[in-house]
């Protein structure tokens, strides 16, 4: 059990193995891990309870990956974008605010919460198919729950995790979406289910 | 305009380019294309209307990819599994039966529609989180609409497109899910939205 970075107690549990297909050294975590290298293990593979966010680098930096409950036998099973190849996750934490039924967010056409806006409370595998006019979102206000936005349609490409209890739920520019964000491009998004 | 394989008329349209970022030679399709090499183009990149299924090989074989409306500037933006690397799509067709609101499917624990069953009409980023006991589905009956099943949680890994108007909606063994299916493993699934 590694408790580098205590978080609110919950039913969270994630099991990491240092080899593919759940082989080798095994560690269980019930709270955030800021740097898995300090635990002498470098893979994360079986998610047993609730929702976790995984990160490319230590201290919750770099590409983000939502980890739903289930089995991830190798890195390809959780990685989201091939454009920038990564083979391991270095840090992870529970997503405490995920609340599927109550998730609500407002999308804005431009940064700093200006321009056309759209309040959503559902999943959208293609924002353009549902009436959003282009392939970008300028800014977002998460009113409740947690969301994951994707660069491409069909839940593909870079992932950006947006939570009501981080940044006060306000993401006014792509620079606040995560250290890997390089543009306003978002073409699909969905609620994170607890 | 290539009309190799006429399908029912609909509002379908997909534009393919032979270079990344929507550059180079361009072709528009309004119905299925059985082999894109015959059109002297080998990428598929901008999906303008409704939903298409893309395939790794000609004649709708190999890995499957759901293409929602939006922009796919390079192969990483639509590819679903890195485990078996592919860089192009060879054939594609519209998914005529997609019907988001009316989608209904029954999951069975074992092949040939036996064992525990579960009727669903919603999206499930993690079947295990919603009560399904393991990481496999034995067989499926699509009663209405079209669905996409994924090997891993969070809509990752191999994709299997299931439609009410193919196979009579019956998929009684993984061998009927597609020529790329090698196991019963399914950990997430969702309705295909028209």
UniProtKB/TrEMBL annotation, chains A, B:
Annotated ranges, domain Beta/gamma crystallin 'Greek key': 50-96, 103-144
Highest taxon in the source lineage: Eukaryota
GO biological process: lens development in camera-type eye; visual perception
Molecular-function annotations in GO: structural constituent of eye lens
UniProt xrefs under Gene3D superfamilies: Crystallins (2.60.20.10)
Record InterPro entries: Beta/Gamma-Crystallin, Beta/gamma_crystallin, G_crystallin-like
Keywords: Eye lens protein, Repeat
Pfam families recorded: Crystall
Family of the protein in this entry: Belongs to the beta/gamma-crystallin family.
Described function: Crystallins are the dominant structural components of the vertebrate eye lens.
UniProt name for this protein: Crystallin, beta A1a
Species, as recorded: Xiphophorus couchianus
